[in-house]
Write a structure and sequence with these properties.
heterodimer, A: alpha+beta, ABC transporter involved in vitamin B12 uptake, BtuC, Elongation Factor Tu (Ef-tu), domain 3, 3 domains, 6-stranded antiparallel β-barrel, flat, B: alpha/beta, Rossmann fold, 6-stranded mixed sheet, 22 strands, globular
Chain lengths: 622, 522
Amino acid sequence: MKQVVGIFSLLLFVFVATALMSDAFLKPFNLENLMKRTALFGIISIGVAFVIITGGIDLSVGSIICLVGCGLPFLLQVEYVALGEVSVSRVTASTGTIELARPPNGFSQGDRVRLIGSATDNDRLYRVSGIGSTGINVAPRPGSDATGGRLAVVHPVEVDGATLVLGKPFTDRDGVGHRMAPRDRLTFVLEDGREGATARIVSVDGDRMGLSESAPEQLAGVLGLARRPWTSVPVALAIVLGASLAIGLFHGLLIARLKLQPFVVTLCGLLLYRGITRGFTQDQTQGLIDEYPTLKLIATAELARIPLVWGLLAAGGVLLVGGSAWAWLSRRRLAGEGTLLGVMAVPVSTVLLGLCLLVWGVGEMPSQETIAIEADREQSVRVDLPEGTSRVRVEAAAGEGAQWQTIDETDVAVSEARQELIVPSLKTIVEAKPGEWTQLRVVVLERVEPEIGLPAPLMILLVVGVLASVFLNHTIYGRYLLAMGNNEEAALYSGIHTGRMIVLAYVICAGLAGLGGVLFVLDINSAQPVDFGNFYELYAIAAAVLGGCSLRGGEGTILGVVIGAALMRVLKNMITLVDWMPTYIEYAIIGAVILAGVIVDELVKRAAARRRLQRIRGGDAE
Amino acid sequence: MSEAPTDRGAAPAGNRVGAEDRLLEVRAVSKRFPGVLALDRVDLVLHPGEVLAVIGENGAGKSTLMKILAGVQPADAGELLVDGQPVQIDGVEEALAAGIALIHQELNLADNLDIAANIFLGREPRRGPAGVLIDHARTHGQSRRFLDMVGLAVDPATIVSELTIGRQQMVEIAKALSVDARVLIMDEPTSSLSQSEAESLFEVIGQLRDAGKSIVYISHRLGEVTRLADRVTVLRDGANAGELDRQEITHDAMVQLMVGRDIDQLQRAANRQLGAVVLEASGLRSPAFPDHRLDFSVRAGEIVGLAGLVGAGRTELLQTLFGITPALDGQLKIGEIPLLPQDPRQAIRAGMALVPEDRKQQGLVIEMTVRENMSLPSLKRDARSGFLNRGREKEVGDRMIERLRVKTPGPEQVVRYLSGGNQQKVVLGKWLAMEPQVLLMDEPTRGIDVGAKQEIYSLMEELAARGVAILFVSSEMEEVLRMSDRAVVMHEGRIAGELDREVLAGGEGEEAVMQLATGAVG
């Protein structure tokens, strides 16, 4: 607990300071994003902490994230294969015959077809008038002879409201039947033969298909596109996560067995994995576009949505009560060895943050608001509405103190941006509702409460954090890790398999980096091999160090590391949001804060060691 | 009263040179480490051109005193006078400026650099504009002069790592001469030297004395002291125990002052009942000395001392037995099990435990608590499917603290803050929790104050009485003579001989051990 005291105070301080300096900070969208980023960086920082606890370092984390982040979309790439298409050998205009590369299975009399990529008469629809053994006859006759190209059946459909009903089943290029599935696509073909938009199939119910786009007018039929992913989701996940675990094993063995220095091994890893990624992706951006919506939920889902007010009030209340209890419990240490700053800093700042959140929460409470307007005879007036306003009433009165009369009640579109209402001039109002109106006001009738969602990665962080913490503090292997980090030789002499523990730490680190890579790419949706995950290892190392891990090894708590990661994110957020802080000095501010944190930590530690020593010496003298 | 150099009347009679001159004087210097009063108002006088031997048992405070003189550590109280003037020595720089140089026990040379570079490290003669370049010609020329003074005829351009330990020591002395040191402090200079190297060192010491340098000579080897010293100052338990002038220096007189009691009183009460052989090595070859095959055995309830000079291969033997540097070949039987441990885990499983030589580096995780250290080897045994058994862990800690009378505020104290003796008890405690049948101990009482030493001795005896076989390495003759049922003496990697209780307890025990240890017989 002691190790996280300083960093926790710092986090609270930066949090409150940012909230005071920027209105946007406590907006639900910002807080959600902050939580999500904290969770993602927290996960990779925990991994790095394990390595740092052994006295090692892992510089390859960012590159592993890049490898996984680009590798996953690369493996999950999707191709769309045209259905109901056949290669054309020859088009004879005079007879209206189209000879095909394979027997014309799947074509039937009366089907409408479309020539694609043939030199002649693209964008025209034909009707099958006869079927031979090697080709078909079409009407009307094509304009000229041609060779090559493809012939596609334009599948007839019926539009039934939002859904389409297929009139003829699809076959693939070999003439084998294909059942359309969600995420396959349809290209609309218009009566004049041109291709329209391509729509994604959202749902399939027998022959009825729900589409992402509504069908256009003048629809002749559809062309089918079957979705072909390179690999299935479980296989792709197994490959990328397996690869990151293998990388960890590789690092661990080089360090434990060959006794190479961790810095060197992982520095080479940093170069190696990014280089490999840029190689197999040919430096092209890898993205998931709109595919795999379910998979993306891992990173983008919301566990719960609660009104922001409740969130603020609840968090504030918990902090207030918790901090007070903490201060009460700490009071005896104050009389003993502790200093005021050392013992009370955290409880007091906890209480303060709780109070701040409560005040903000009360400020966000919905209320019926009345907005007075400077009424003008000729000009309309722009009125700023409170955030989330959904319904207002405009009222008017004939002179001061007179009865307010309703002029108009209207719904307002809710948006994240500033909300405005334009109130017409008095002249206009009098025209609409005659009266001697001199006063105007707007009454807010309904407001949509701002809500905040708890992002799913927060739950993943919670699970990873609890597991890591239990591992470190409640299993013998965690104890071995700490002992080994402190003194590898003494651990060896005590019968600990130190090599195995080193390997384990690097495997955990690379594995969590891999998990982080998956979550990052699912959240961001695309990854550029050049810079995806760039510098993330340094953020993770900084978070671990801020969280109380000593680079000499043997020290560190998981809670501290997570708080360290949160601090890094809040700092970055602060620099982005606070107007007078130029964003381009971001690194300077982060660097300075980390340095200050580490210096303070070291000074506090020294003071504690001195006090301790004095106590012991004092004890001896007695 | 004035202690100025002119104060002739205060000088004791009988000293050879300049007895009236007090080149260096130490007055009532005290130094406290956590848990130990290392120096308790110690006085010391050094005259110009004399060899003063400072002797005492391990932990008597010799090295601490020398470190204070050389500015490595500050004194808590007392004063230092050079040429009768009080001086404040807060660092090595200031000690050197006062003409005091320490030749470290562990040589302090940058062994990747050449001799000349080492001699002038930090004080290189410069040349070129603004003196940015090292004047190699001058560096080497001057180095040769200092090397001549210590009789070392090697090229100053030789890389230090290519020299033998003895020659490296000479370089170290040359380095001290190059800063014009008047007082050379030599801390166990012969501990890692061969006989002939030691001889040439003695010769150089004689020459330096004749050249007017003063030498403070620290050694355990009383033979050397008898031969070299003009005067002997004896420390015991951090305080002055007495002084011997040239004509008073005899082996017995020194031992008497060092031990503070007659050696005969140190005899152990009774012979123990010995059980079956539980550790038996035959033809064992350790990687450190692959040319020698070792045969020896230890019986249950027996305490066997492993004696010999530093570098004789005793620590290496223990490490081989414990699987840290696995044996090349040969046979080893632990209890009934034939096993050549390939790593410490195998040795521990077979019932062995090692209290290592370097307590802080190998014995303890210094930043962890007493409880965590004591439970480290037994965690796995007591774990429940990988999870810590905290109740059991706490119980082990509490039990061991009580049994070994570890002086600690509690089991949650970080061991760094314990005294050496209590730290050693923690090391013992962690192994006792494993209930070993063979206990290997490497210098079990090094750096421990006298009280704790006695406790460790009685603990060893108690364990032996319970049937634990103990094999311990000690460089303290008194310890070997007192504790061993049998002593195995090593010399340069081989077993030179064994001495049984009768010989050890007899008046000639020490001599017998020394003769074997120095390779004179056996």
